[in-house]
Queue: 2 jobs
Job 1
Amino acid sequence: MRIWAYGDDINTDMLFPGKYTYTCAKPDEIKPHLLEDLDPEFAKEVQPGDMIFAGKNFGCGSSREQPVVGLKAVGIEAIVAKSYARIFYRAAINQGLLLIECPEAVAVYKPDMPVQLNLKESTMLVDNQTYKFPTLPPEILAIRDAGGLLEYTRARLRAKASAK
Amino acid sequence: MAMTFAEKVLSRKAGKKSARAGDLVTCKPDRLLMHDNAAAITDKVARDMAKFGIADPEQPIIVLDHVIPASDEKTATSHKKIREFVKKSGIKHFFDIGTGVCHQVMVEKGLVLPGMLAVGSDSHTCSYGAVNAFATGIDRTEAAALLLTGETWFKVPETIRVTLHGRLPEMVSAKDLILTIIGKVGADGADYCSVEFSGDIACLTIDDRFTIANMGVEMGAKNAVFPVDEVTKGYLQEIGVNRITWNPEWADDGATYRQKLTWNLGEIVPALSLPHKVDKYKPVTELVGMEVQQCLIGTCTNGRASDLAIAARILCGKKVSLNTRLLILPASRAELEEALDAGDIETLVSAGAVLLPPGCGPCLGAHQGCLAPGEKCLSTSNRNFKGRMGCKDAEIYLASPATVAATALTGKISDPREVA
Ligand code: SF4
């Protein structure tokens, strides 16, 4: 597992350049351009299970969801940041991508430190120190746990149709 | 219980007596905006729509604006797909290419009104706070789910109150004000928050308020909003909106705020935002003389007839410097027509400006007016992120229409108070 560490205010144009917004929508079209203007190595080397560590206001800018769709598709297990921009935060819930807000863990993290996630307890271990992070309210967790908003919505619509 | 604007609109829309910051509520937005991304959105749920139908054909609004006219086969095909979808599904509100940038169209067609709840699959949906709507951006997947269900959840935001005092000086505009505010509070200063503007707002036109609310998201805000006053009423009357359909809301005295900020308008000076972050504020005076290769006046932030009038006033009878190029990007056909009637387009084109069709054009770097490596652009748009105008090795500086027009004249960053 590799950790990709970045700074503050990583915006959506850095995560996925705007010039591709209207020509790439499918995961396979998105993947090669992920983080293109921020870290050209990322798209080539990222592996399922990797994590991203970042500073404050991660995902600020456009409402484009390609960054979230792409990061989910390449198998990013979680993003750990000091804070997130709200449209990005919501888009991640809607795609079932795990975002962790834990400024303390990000502050102590240095390259090559061991990191471990414990989702049941909502804690993470960084360099053998335990950090607790907030969880989502149950109504919202239900969306992420269903695998994303569309799956969640379809299940509700089906239930409604069969109740009729 | 004293409530903020956000608490009032969201509780009313959720059918509740009251709501507090932090509460989760489910609401049916009055409006759902999509643009060129409608093709990707409807793709996600095409089969579901065939099975379950569209929740409410009155709710979605589609405006083709981002890459218009189509730049290649791929964008042409997605526009075609959207037009077919509109016909087939009975979508009531559709605006084809050339009508304008979606946000401008939403406001000038009277599709967003005081007290409405609007969502849009575009981050600058927050613009409609100019006319007292609670408006916020969502992602494409959420827009797709809304087509099926018509409703979604909202976390009631905390609120920041910004109180304005005094008047803006000559050649200083709403754009300078909002760039100054963002410079102070930071790109994340209003993350998740609702921002209420109050105080001496009577001197701010709807165009000014649009510019300010439009950039709310650049400080992280969920929405940014102005109260309804005589200026709002005058504007809505002008565009022919029937008063009975408004449901204005405003915060109660004694509502709870996360933060209260005050600005003295008289102290604002022409402002710049430096690459590659909107909160990198500098007064224009500190960069006077820096050469720029492209100037852009337009976009949903500053592409209205009033913006073009200021530019025309500065460039009247003069020529754009041979060391730069000036692009004019009107926010809508209606604004373009107004500028044509005023003679401002003629003035600008005679001065050497290049007129683009009303839409997003160079703003997002997908086509038209791309920058080359090493070039600098001074723009009235709202975002200067690296790569935003199509080239990651170019630099974008943000400023007011007056500053950009003054700069186009000399080819170097210029203070509009000196040139005009
Ligand atoms: S003009 Fe620019 S900021 Fe406005 S909607 Fe178009 S791309 Fe977005």
Job 2
Amino acid sequence: MRAAVVLFPGSNSDVEMIRTLREVMGIPTDVVWHRDTALPPDTELVALPGGFSFGDYLRCGAIARTSPIIGAIRRHADRGGYVLGVCNGFQILTEVGLLPGALLRNEHLRFECRDIFLRTDAEGPFTERRGAVLRLPIAHAEGRYHTDPATLRRLEAEGRIAFRYAHADGLVNASANPNGSLDSIAGIYGGPARNILGLMPHPERMSERLHGGVDGKALFDTLLKTVAGSSNPSTEERRAQVAS
Amino acid sequence: MKATVYVRLKAEVLDPQGEAVRRALAHMGVDGVRGVRVGKLIELDIEAADVDAARAMLKRAADELLANPVMEDYEVVVGSSA
């Protein structure tokens, strides 16, 4: 397993992401600048960290879609490579079109910076068990997920709604929704093999005891298991799976 | 050539910023404001052979960057705005 963290001007959660991948998970991790045009060879996970890429000018993540590295990320994702977008990284993935929908200004206009609970609603490379509740921090002003009704139905039918904002017991309702997200959506899967995950909460900020919890580490643990459990398929084999 | 692109949140998309402005206007005593929507006005100074070429260029600019079709509509006006 090898990871690459992509830096944009204005990224600010890159240090946590790199530390979690390298120090906590022991995953060799490269740092890629947004003006690079290729990912290091053997990159299996591309992580887009949180922050305010390009100052959030125009729209969150909008300018980043024109960065030279995006083509390489798109090719990696299209052939089934893993992509994780957190917060601004999620916004960038929607702007690029790798994930459907958009993230709008929070309903109550506040920048929400606190721990919330998430219910896992889909299984995939990063999530093992539906119903599992995680406590993770959020820190965003534009996290209100929005999409059209047809896309929402498709996400639901295909089991691509990875996380919903919930109470500690897993109950999902409006009072547990910190930003007015459509259907309480906090994160979604995309890509040909659910290989792309975008979410607003920050798993990399809840990955060590010092953080007050390790619920975020579970996503990375599960990804490592997914990669190992598929009996270490080579990239070629995974491409074949995706194609079939 | 001058051009203006107006970007607006789609009608069905909640605009909490507009609502906050509406409430602020009410607090100021500006009565009679029933609704406010906040959008963007983008002014461009462009070189194009003619208006059709300008329109084609601005359509691409708006479709691919200036507006996000998931949440926004846009309108292009070629020529000097008011």
